[in-house]
Amino acid sequence: MKAKFKLILGRRKNYPLHIELEVYKGADCRVFISTGIVLESAKQWDPARQIVVKHTNAEQYNTFMHGIIENIETAEKDADEHNRPFNSMEIKAAAKNLTSFESVDVIETFNRYVEEEECKANTRKGHKYTMSSFCKFIKEFKGIKSARLSFSELNYALIVEYDKYLKANTGKNGSTAFNYHMYLRKLSREAKLDGLIRNNPYDDFNLVKGKSTRRPSLTTEQLVILENIDRKALDDEHISEVVLDMFLFSCYTGLRYSDVSTLLKSELRYDKKGIVIERKTQKTETDVVLPLYMLFNGKAQRIAEKYIKEHEDINTLFPSRVLPIVNKHLLSIEKFLHLPFHLTFHVARHTCASQLAELADNPFVIMQILGHGTIHTSMRYIHRSHRTSEKKLAEVDWSDADDIEYPSNEETLSIYNSIIEACNAKQLSSDLTNMAVGAAMSNYQMAGEIKNWISGLKKTDYTMEAWGKRLEMVVG
């Protein structure tokens, strides 16, 4: 008798949504073959038609499963023509020829994942940059004109070569290469969940985040130069007054270009003291409230009042300018200031954060004004501000320094190691660990109390704000 086929969902109780192929060739020959396909819901399987439905990879899955059947039928026909027995061993051998998705194209699948992902337009744009970089690498690595890669070729060795390519050929800094790898790892994880690969090649790859490059920003002196530039001479410098004011407005508010260029007058309200911006940022959809009259002595408010008065006929605060023209004028400002770095609106945002770090010396102010997602992002600017260190050092009374009895080198090392050990036991972040070590080194008499306090920490204390307050209470 000829072999009969049936696809079954959930035959095994410990893996209920696993699809298997039953091959029946008489009472003495019944074989169950794993397809490697796992569905999320029984609704994704049509038992009558023996196909996967309502699944992003339905077409590929169905083609693959029926390909296994065709392989077995071909092997059975060949056995009959040559009068060879066709038993369970031959059935399993024939099925092995198609029991993986090695023929499915990685690039095509990953691009589909990118398009189907629920994310913001700017985020998807960044993900497309990742795929563009990966495709370019595949072309060069394989010496082909169009990027083609089977899942059988997606392995650890390929990822290592791509890492070398990013670092050596594209000029990407460590942080960008890390982000590219992170997204490819996510796509590979999705492919594994879809049954396209058995192992994620990134499971064995050590992802190390490179050191971020220093974020350039304008100094206070450079800002003063731009503020006092002769407006009548702007044409000679090929600088648009509107672009200059938009850039300065970004320096004083920390708003991105996407927010400055689309800021509506209706998003500016007047209270008793002055103008306040209430807006949801375009990129992160974060609600920001910016009292312009309090920021940098009201410089942003004076710019806003100027354009409200001069351009009453438009809804936006600033007249519309296309980005290529804006960048052209920013280049002129860059040359005017003789800057050693490329000038962008993101430089203006970093300038705002750096100025706030030096003037306010409060990471929570920076976080609130710039709409940072975490306090760690804001703390980078505090750590980088030399004026913050100057202010704190200026408060030190050095006259009694000679009378202080400092611990010996051995005692200092012991204190340091004990605090590090306590922090590691609690798996604290490097920022919190550094704060604890700093407190112990500057209050070495309280080192024992600090260590005991760390040992008794709860998860609710693992935030920068709670940590700082409680640590301050410990050291008095």
Description:
It contains 19 helices and 8 strands. It is mainly α and 476 residues long. The chain has a 3-stranded antiparallel β-sheet with strand order 1-2-3, covered by helices on one side. Helix 12 (345-359) packs antiparallel against helix 13, helix 16 runs antiparallel to helix 17 (430-442) and helix 16 runs parallel beside helix 18. The chain is extended. The relative contact order is 0.05. The model has no long low-confidence stretch (mean pLDDT 81).
Question: What is the structure about, briefly put?
Answer:
It contains 19 helices and eight strands.
Which tags fit this structure?
single chain; 476 residues; mainly alpha; three-stranded antiparallel sheet; 8 strands; extended
Q: Provide the succession of SSEs.
A: EEEEEHHHHHHHHHEEEHHHHHHHHHH
Let me know the number of strands. Answer: 8
Q: Record the strand order, biggest sheet.
A: 1-2-3
The helix-and-strand class reads mainly alpha
General form: extended
Helix coverage percent of residues?
40-55%
Please give the count of helices.
19
Over all CA atoms, what is the radius of gyration? 32 Å
Task: Please describe the biggest sheet, giving its number of strands, its sense, and whether it closes into a barrel.
Answer: 3 strands, antiparallel
Question: Uncertain segments of ≥5 residues (pLDDT<50)?
Answer: none
Strand content: 5-15%
User: Averaged pLDDT, please?
Assistant: 81
C-alpha termini separation: 89 Å
Outline the fold blueprint:
Blueprint: E1 4-9, E2 18-24, E3 30-38, E4 45-46, E5 51-52, H1 58-81, H2 88-96, H3 106-116, H4 121-142, H5 156-168, H6 174-193, H7 220-227, H8 241-253, H9 257-260, E6 268-270, E7 275-280, E8 287-291, H10 299-310, H11 323-337, H12 345-359, H13 363-370, H14 375-384, H15 386-394, H16 409-425, H17 430-442, H18 447-455, H19 464-475
Antiparallel strand pairs: 1-2, 2-3, 4-5, 6-7, 7-8
Helix pairs in contact: 1-2, 3-4, 3-6, 4-5, 4-6, 8-10, 8-12, 12-13, 12-14, 13-14, 16-17, 16-18, 17-19
